[in-house]
Amino acid sequence: MTLRHRWRLILRISIATGGAFAVATYILGHQQAFFAPIAAVLALMAGVGMRVRVTFELVLGVAVGVLIGELLILGIGRGAWQIALVSALTVAIATLLGIKGMALTQAVNSGLLLAAVVPLPGATDPALTRFLDALVGGLFGLAMVVLIPRNPVRDIDVDVQRLLRRLGGVLSRIAQALRTDDAALADLALEEARAAQSLVDTVSDTATNVAEVARMSPMRWRQRDDVARYVDSVTDLDNAVRDARVLARRVSAMLRHDESAPSGLDEAVDRLVTAVGIFADELAQSDEFDEAREELVEAARIAMSSLPEIVTVNTASIAAQIRSLSADLMLASGATRSELDERLDFD
């Protein structure tokens, strides 16, 4: 990723760290405000969809850690064995309180810092200082997400288009395998479909992230409906990729057993490819999905009508998977279950 694409992240980090340090140092009067910028970075760089939770855990963990550390230090002082005792007791007490994850990490870190770092003469109480620094840094990190947000629709659109292009490529290869009776092509399509799972995971992470941005930032509230449409489609797209894997596996099995592909199955898969291409081109305009849905309905109709009087497990499964793909892609486009029942249940 180039610097041009990271300008927003650079701006967020610079403002959040500098602002958190300035507030903690010059407004709150802390002489060792090193944790304020650290907390800002932790909140900013938290896992997708977890920034509010991470900020809460930062503050909670620090509060528990400084409470335990301060009480112990008042009684036993500072030193190597005191550090060992503080860390052990902090983990034990935090576990009993049900604290885990980032909160547990910060609880231990806070207790250790209190036990290891000797406050400067005349410095503010380190327990209170550490707590306030965590709060200031976390709030600055959140503020940067709210005030300098990414474009959530653009972000998820890029990832979904990448996934749809991969899915279209897999289906194109399957259609070619059906036309040429080439089991090796079907096997290659299966490998590509399996590799597409990483793209599905990326889309899922992006969906969580953009939903958080659209929810938190007033600047992006007008995009919440569009973001919700994308987010709602993630599960259905995941199912479509899984359907494609099963479809490729069944086509490979059919061809390896020297079964002839029923006439029309390749055309049905080609219709799926066309629909996926329309989705990729028109994601930002949901009113353009009617054409794609017509292709999906036709794909399912052709597949079911292509079945011969005597079917094998593989041919029946292939037709069923084409219908499943049509259904999942229609759901991803916003179709309802009742619409699926009405349009995909053929006599």
TrEMBL record:
Transmembrane regions: 9-28, 58-76, 82-99, 130-148
Entry keyword annotation includes Manganese: no
Instruction: Report the GO terms under cellular component.
Output: membrane
The record's keywords, sorted A to Z, are: Membrane, Transmembrane, Transmembrane helix
Q: What is the membrane topology noted in the UniProt record heading this document?
A: Multi-pass membrane protein
- Please report the stretch or stretches of sequence annotated as the Integral membrane bound transporter domain: 23-143
Domain of life of the organism in this record? Bacteria
State what protein this is by name: Integral membrane bound transporter domain-containing protein
